[in-house]
């Protein structure tokens, strides 16, 4: 959107128009794919300013490219953040978001309701009690996989900020039209609301940087410091960079995400209701159902309930799975097609019987998504 709109664009409008500008030299629309390795400088001083962070622009695609710059800005707009950084896999975003704030001897207080999470989530006061002088963040998934437990994000934010540490949320299951702001899952989005200077626990953000000859990140970038530091101190060296072709494709998806996600959620709710009523299904796990333990929190934090799980004896479940014609037996989430999988014998098979029971994934159960 080149010109300032007459009012703040709605969420659905941002999916299509956020960060979209006509190409400055080609007048191309949509944005072009820059399959470029390196970029030239105007002169020696221009190059020196880029490398010393006195000015920002493209150096090499590992730390900047015009195609994923558009994708990052659109994602930040959709998630209500101040800036974003696109990476190759979601695991890289998790590592980099933590590596930039934690060092040897530090710790992260994390929910047990992570990938392979349990039904019994921790109370916010349990998080508070676990924080010590070396704690650098609270980390959790906005919706646990595969039990779909939703945490009270507002309560945990209060706990984190009252202790001078940031909140890191893996929003894999809530991304896009159904999601909550400030996500990490392939893209790091910084809300810009955490005051790194006030905290006092992150001197590398506020003190002189040896790697940049006395440069102070907070003085230069203020609320946008987090993403800048991740970019120039971690991604620059690790190279877990999203490619321009990937960024271009990811820009196409959000353009129709709102109507697609609404239909996905409606279909999932209809299927969940059917399974909940079925005599041979012991339990249907879907946050859109009032019977789900996180139903109230899901209605509070998400636009629509999403993803579901039906449970039945594994022998029976396997026969059902194998007889399905349209659904695929697939270890993935977030796609347009229906999938089924049995977590206890696939994605969570490393867990023992006690751990599976603890996480509400008894080995005699099966699940569909």
**Uncertain residue segments:** 116-121, 176-185, 305-312, 361-369
Distance between the termini: 37 Å
Shape: globular
Q: How would a textbook summarize the main sheet?
A: 3 strands, parallel
Radius of gyration: 22 Å
Instruction: Estimate percent helicity.
Output: 25-40%
Helix segment count? 15
The total count of strands amounts to: 10
The mean pLDDT is 80
What is the CATH class name of the largest domain?
Alpha Beta
Strand order of the largest sheet: 2-3-4
> Can you name the CATH architecture of the largest domain?
3-Layer(aba) Sandwich
GO biological process, one term: transsulfuration
Protein name: O-acetylhomoserine (Thiol)-lyase
GO molecular function: cysteine synthase activity; O-acetylhomoserine aminocarboxypropyltransferase activity; pyridoxal phosphate binding
Cofactor: pyridoxal 5'-phosphate
Task: Give structural notes.
This protein has 2 domains: 11-254, Type I PLP-dependent aspartate aminotransferase-like (Major domain) (Aspartate Aminotransferase, domain 2, 3-Layer(aba) Sandwich), CATH 3.40.640; 257-363, Aspartate Aminotransferase, domain 1 (Alpha-Beta Complex). It is 37% helix and 10% strand. The chain is built from 15 helices and 10 strands. It has helices spanning 11-17, 44-51, 66-79, 90-99, 124-130, 153-162, 196-199, 203-206, 217-221, 225-238, 244-252, 257-277, 295-301, 314-323, 353-358; strands at 83-86, 107-110, 135-141, 167-170, 187-190, 283-286, 308-311, 328-329, 339-341, 367-368. It has a 3-stranded parallel β-sheet. A 3-stranded mixed β-sheet has the order 8-9-10, with helices on one face. Strands 1-5 form a two-stranded antiparallel sheet.
């Amino acid at each position: 959107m080149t010109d300032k709109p007459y009012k703040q664009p709605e969420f659905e409008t941002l999916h299509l128009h956020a960060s979209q500008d006509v190409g400055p030299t080609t007048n191309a629309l949509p944005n072009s794919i820059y399959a470029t390795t390196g970029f030239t400088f105007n002169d020696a001083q221009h190059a020196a300013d880029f490398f010393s962070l006195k000015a920002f622009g493209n150096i090499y695609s590992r730390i900047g490219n015009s195609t994923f710059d558009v994708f990052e800005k659109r994602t930040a707009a959709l998630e209500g953040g101040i800036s974003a950084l696109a990476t190759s896999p979601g695991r890289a975003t998790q590592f980099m978001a933590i590596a930039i704030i934690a060092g040897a001897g530090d710790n992260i207080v994390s929910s047990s309701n992570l990938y392979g999470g349990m039904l019994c989530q921790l109370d916010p006061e349990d998080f508070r009690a676990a924080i010590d002088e070396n704690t650098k963040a609270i980390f959790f998934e906005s919706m646990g996989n595969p039990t779909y437990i939703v945490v009270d994000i507002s309560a945990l934010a209060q706990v984190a900020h009252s202790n001078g540490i940031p909140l890191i949320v893996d929003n894999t299951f809530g991304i896009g039209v159904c999601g909550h702001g400030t996500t990490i899952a392939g893209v790091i989005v910084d809300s810009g609301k955490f005051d790194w200077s006030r905290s006092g626990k992150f001197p590398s953000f506020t003190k002189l940087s040896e790697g940049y000859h006395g440069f102070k990140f907070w003085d230069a970038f203020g609320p946008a410091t987090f993403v800048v530091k991740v970019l120039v101190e971690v991604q620059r060296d690790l190279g877990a960079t999203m490619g321009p072709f990937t960024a271009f494709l990811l820009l196409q998806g959000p353009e129709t995400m709102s109507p697609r996600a609404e239909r996905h959620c409606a279909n999932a709710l209809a299927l969940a209701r059917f399974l909940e009523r079925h005599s041979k299904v012991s339990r249907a796990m879907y946050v859109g159902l009032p019977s789900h333990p996180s139903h109230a929190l899901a209605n509070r934090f998400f636009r629509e309930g999403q993803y579901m799980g039906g449970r039945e004896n594994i022998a029976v479940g396997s026969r059902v799975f194998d007889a399905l014609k349209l659904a695929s037996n697939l270890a993935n989430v977030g796609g347009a097609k229906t999938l089924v999988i049995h977590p206890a014998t696939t994605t969570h098979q490393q867990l023992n019987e006690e751990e599976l029971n603890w996480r509400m994934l008894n080995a005699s159960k099966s699940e569909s998504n």
